[in-house]
Every structure is written in structure tokens, then in C-alpha cells.
Protein: Aminopeptidase N
Amino acid sequence: MTACSPNNKVINETDTAVPAKADDTGSIEVGKDYHSFANPEEITVTHLDLDLRADFELKQLSGTVALDIQRAQPGANTLVLDTRDLDIKKVTVAGEAVPFELKTADENLGSALYIELPNNAERLLIEYQTSPSASGAQWLTPAQTAGKKHPFLFTQAQAIHARSFIPLQDSPKVRVTYTATIRTPKELLAVMSASNDPDTERDGVYEFNMPQAIPSYLIALAIGDLEFQAMGPRTGVYAEPSMLQAAAKEFEDTESMLIATENKYGPYGWDRYDLLILPPSFPFGGMENPRLSFITPTVIAGDKSLVALIAHELAHSWSGNTVTNATWRDLWLNEGFTTYLTYRIMEMIYGEARYNMEAVLGYQDLQNDIASLTSKDQILAIDLRGRDADDVFSNIPYEKGALFLREIEQKIGRDNFDTFLLQYFEDFAFKSITTDEFIAYLKTTLLAQYPDKLSAERIDLWIFEPGIPEGAPVPESDAFVNVDSARDAWLGGNMSANEIDTNAWTVHQWLYFLNNMPEQLNDKQLLALDTAFDLTNSKNNEIAHSWLMIAVQNEYKPAYDRLFDYLTSIGRNKLVKPLYRELSKTKEGKAFAKKAFDKAKAGYHPLTVSANEGFVN
Ligand code: BES
Ligand code: ZN
Structure:
């Protein structure tokens, strides 16, 4: 895809892409962003002014972005931006067209946009339009929403999809402030990862300002029939009207979480903290867009059992949004710290028993990934060269990262570790940090302070080697002891399913009960469980997921209607992908998966489509 306005000359640039190719086997250049073509070390974009119109008929955003730039290298005049499937119509500086060239697209990275700037230009304007199949946006028809009356749009920029709706330097090393004017059909409301005014007049023109510099992956927009309900002085929820009450109730502890977290880890630096409840096709559980986390509706369980997700997205306000991973190789600095903080927040709000149960479940997820991932992919500082940045999504950056921090906590003491974290968030506030910079920081702080408790070798083992280092902490929960006994007694034929006393079981105990079943169960056993506990009809999406995994592994057909319904009504990848993977292992399962996928595909997010189509074709 090459675009060049007729009156502009094509820039004389070589076609060599900046990032490394897939066959690059040399050593990693630390701090280099292999997932961006941009050249911030020469010219840095510091601010964006967006003016975009959302056209729901064409499924396109169109308009302009103005970029403020600073020369990091005096005299540099070639600005390189990231784009993906964008139609770049015109680039101007002070009203005059300037030459630009869109390079041939790389499958993972999109197309580099080269712009030749006049000397001393400090601002440029790009007129552009997105593609209806932009990887970072999902356009939903009214039928795909809760209300069924109005269309919906949401963006999901992490990891490298901002470039599919804005031409920019799409690297977490680069931070920008932004303003936006978003034009929508009158009856809809637009919200962004910026200042949102819940009382704004619904007139189809919405203004936003994000005065704090953020990495591009945190730029986010949603448009729909949204209403707002406050949950506390600084917290509230946006959702479609029919979801609003239930969401506000489910997440009513958000304000307490916010207060507890800032008491431990320093002031919340982002003004308001609101939640946006998305339609069920949202491909993630949550996304930490600043001031406005995007949340899947699949966690509204009615009993707050799945609200760790909120603690997680909130925690990113410190680890991720304030201190940011410099490249996607360093994702564990975002997700590992955040997972560690999530456990701590859950403990502060719901107590130690919940903390322990969630830690055990997380640890088990980690062990499952370690059993199935290649050793290369078990490394915290993962080598992603030539790979899709979304490939980093496993429990390694999350749970292995958190376990590493838990070990440090246990070795030096919790209070000392909290003091360290508080200082770390302050020292790196509004900065992007590499794994290597983090290690260097550890050396001057904790390693110097606690030389008899911590060692550089052990830290390298955690960060650069696969697996879990021997002697790592193993989370334990008392609440799971009787669940193990019940499962054992039932499997051993010493107790019928009806006799298991599950009355006081929490959702976590149910998950532990199901996730630790042997892989093979017979029809009689499956039917006994289902008859006693009505698992096929569980309203809790996580319990349903665990049960459906068992059903697929054992071809338990009475659950397949529910399975079909589940796969065609939920787009959260973490919930559907393991089911597709499991189904694809048999011919019959694959045919079933294909039927569900074909029906669901039109409603799935582009990321859910690409993550699962390989299983059905
Ligand atoms: N930032 C992530 C989502 C993400 C990570 C998107 C990497 C793209 C690339 C978000 O905070 C997250 O971790 N979501 C999890 C939450 C869970 C671990 C509680 C999810 O969506 O499942
Ligand atoms: Zn996260």
C-alpha cells in the first residue's frame, strides 16, 4: 500500500525496515523496540490533537491528527510513524502539503509512514481514514449490544494497534499528551482515556483532554448508548443502560480499592477512576486505559467473585500507566507488578483467605503454562523479535512476574518491599523502563540494602531463564484443603457428589475443585457432577469455563448446547481460546468448533478472530 499525493515527490529512502526480521538470531539490542518503525530518537512526537468523525455505516473513523514534534537530533527532518491499514490522504505543515510515503506493509507491524518535514517544523497535520477492519477497533451493530438499538465502537490499542486508528509513534517508549474532538451520531456518547464529563450534553460532539503524557497503547475511545452512575467521589461506571445498575453494584468496592492502593503505593495520579463496561465481544478481561478502564461484562457475576479484575486494572494506574514497560519484551514489568499488586489489593479489601485462594489459582495457571509453553516463552524478558507482540500474552509475565516479586517480598519482609515499591513508582513516574534498567535499579537499591537476602544471580535466574526457580514460594490456601478431600473422596468412590457439602463454597473453591479434576472422567461421573451441581447452567462465566473445558476433554455431550451458546456469546479470548484449542484436538470437536466459530465470527473482535481461526480451519 503506497500513497503519494500527486504534487509530492516520493522520498528517497531505502526500503529496509527498522525492526529486525524474523530470522534475526543475533543478540537483542536492549531497549530497542522491535515492534515499531518510528524514529523517536531523531524526532519525538510529544502531543496529539485528534479531530475524528465516527461513521457507523462505513465503520470508519475519519478526520485529522495534528502532531507536535521535538527534534531529539538537531537537523533531523524525516519523521517515521507507525500505521496499519490507514488511508493517509494528506500531510501538511502550516497549511502546505509535504511529501510522504507509506511503505509496504509488514504482516505484524503494519506500514511505516515516512514524512519529509521542512526545517524547523514543529507541528504537522495528517488527514486520514481508518479501515473498517482496523485491528484496533471493533464496530458493533445494534444487535451485538445489550440494548439492541444503537451501534457501538470501541478501540483496543495494546499492544500495537493504536497505529490502526491513529498514525503515530506506536512505541511504549514514547509518551504523548492529547486532546480530541470526537463527532458521533447525536444519540450516542463518546468516552476516552482522558477527562470525561459525565454530565456532558449529548450533542454528538465531545471534547477530551489528556494532560498527562501516556504511551500510545493507552489511547482509547468508545462510543455507544452509554450512561454514567457514580460509585464514589472519584469512581463511577459507564455502561449501556440495561447493565448500569448491576455493574455499579458489582464494582461498588472500587473506591475502597483506590483508597487502599494509594495509601500503600502513593497518591493516585490520574484524577478520576471510572470503569467502562463493554459488550461481551471485548477480547480481554480488562484494559487499563487511564482514568477509564475498559471492562468485560463477563465478570459481572452478582457476587463480586471476579472483581480481582478491577483491582488489576486499577493497579495498572501505578504499574504500567505511571511506570511503563519500555518495549513489549518488558511487558512483565507492567503485568507482573500489576498481578502482584492485584493480590495485595484483594487482600486489603477482602482479607487473607481470598488472597491465598487467588494466589493458588494463579500459581496453578502458571504451572499449566509452564507445562505447555516452549522454554523460550517461559522467560520473563521474552524475545519477541519477528513475532506478533500479542504473542506475549501468557501467564508468564503475569504470574511468574508476580511470584518473583512475592519471593523478594518474603525474603526482605513485606513492609520493606512496600517501601521499595512506593519509591520505585516515584522514581520512574511517567517514564518508560526496560528490564535491564530495572535490574540496574535493583542493584543500587534492594541488592545493596539486603546483600545477605538477595543475589544478582538469583534475579537473573528469574528474569532470563525458563521455568520457576527452585525454592520459589508456593502459595497455599487452607480453604482448598477440604476441597481436595472432597474431590478425592468422590473420585475414590467413597462419597457421592450429592454428599459433598458445597453449601459454603466460594467461587474460588469451585474453580479449584474443577480445575484439579483428572483429565479423564467417565460419563457416569460427569453426569453425577452435573446432576448434583447443575454445572452446565452455571451463571458464573469462570466456573462455566472450567466445567466446559472438562466437558470438551471428555466429550460430555449434554453440555454442548451451553458450550455452543458460550462460544457464540462471549468474545473474551481467555475464556474462548482454550475451548477452541481443546475442541480442535478431535475431528468431531473441530467440526463443532467450526460451526460455533462461523456463527460467532461476525461478532468477534479482530483479535479473537485471529487468535482462534487457526483452530477451526
Ligand atoms: N493490559 C492487559 C491486557 C493486555 C495485555 C492487552 C497485553 C494486550 C496485550 C490487562 O491489564 C490485563 O492484564 N487483562 C487481563 C486481566 C486479568 C489478568 C485479571 C485479562 O484481560 O484477562
Ligand atoms: Zn494487566
Observations:
- The two ends are 28 Å apart (CA to CA).
